Amino acid sequence: MGLLDILLGRTKPVAPDLDQLFALPSAALTLEVAAGFRPSGVGEVCFATVEGAAFEQTHREVQALLDADADRTGPPVELRQDDYGYSWLVSRRTPGQLPELVNDLHAVNSSLEANGFGPQLLCSLAAFTDDRDRRLALVYLYKRGSFYPFAPLPGAGERRDSALELQVKSVLGSDLRIEQDLGRWFPVWGAPGL
Questions:
Q1: 60 CB contacts (<8 Å, ≥6 apart)?
Q2: Does the model's pTM come out above 0.85?
Q3: What's the sign of the alpha-carbon dihedral 109, 144, 194, 93?
Q4: pLDDT tens figures, 57-80
Q5: What is the arrangement of strands in the sheet containing 135-141, beginning at the earlier edge strand?
Q6: Between the CA of residue 38 and those of 42, 85, 113, 149, what are the distances in Å?
Q7: One Pfam annotation, family name (predicted)?
Q8: How far apart are CA 18 and CA 1, in angstroms?
Q9: How confident is the model at residue 52 (pLDDT cuts 50, 70, 90)?
Q10: Residue spans of alpha helices (H) in the chain
């Protein structure tokens, strides 16, 4: 970064740090104690839709890698597309298997990145619920290296619970690298696991 960049207020982009995902299990404990949210067992990786043989080969590799896990029940990872044209690789575990789910998310991100699909990666998320059937996702922004909460309001269409999101931000501020720019807290309406 040069002197001109400093004077003009330009900043160097944050490099993706997939190891930030491993902070999710400890953040989940804090989230349960402070706000009553528990993991639902669903995790997802979102990316701009990719077509072609190279992606199909990568998808097969990810499938084989996650198939090797003897603790898994059901399909290891399913590929879904949302109404907005984005692709989602969805992993399902039991709610008590959050560390294994995080390993799945890390493996999927790492495989896509290693095979040249890093620029298409958008975000990863882990889903949570509480006793009142509210849904919450902790979303990891791949290109920013930070997390933010997303809480859709049940039965309200495309509306979100901003107060809950801000509460979760304050609760998890010491557990996760929270995205400070609220303008980057994008809604993930098409997420299949929410």
A1: none
A2: yes
A3: positive
A4: 887 887 787 777 656 666 667 888
A5: 78-81, 86-92, 38-48, 121-129, 135-141, 146-150
A6: 11, 29, 29, 14
A7: PspAB
A8: 23
A9: confident
A10: 3-7, 24-35, 53-67, 98-112, 162-172
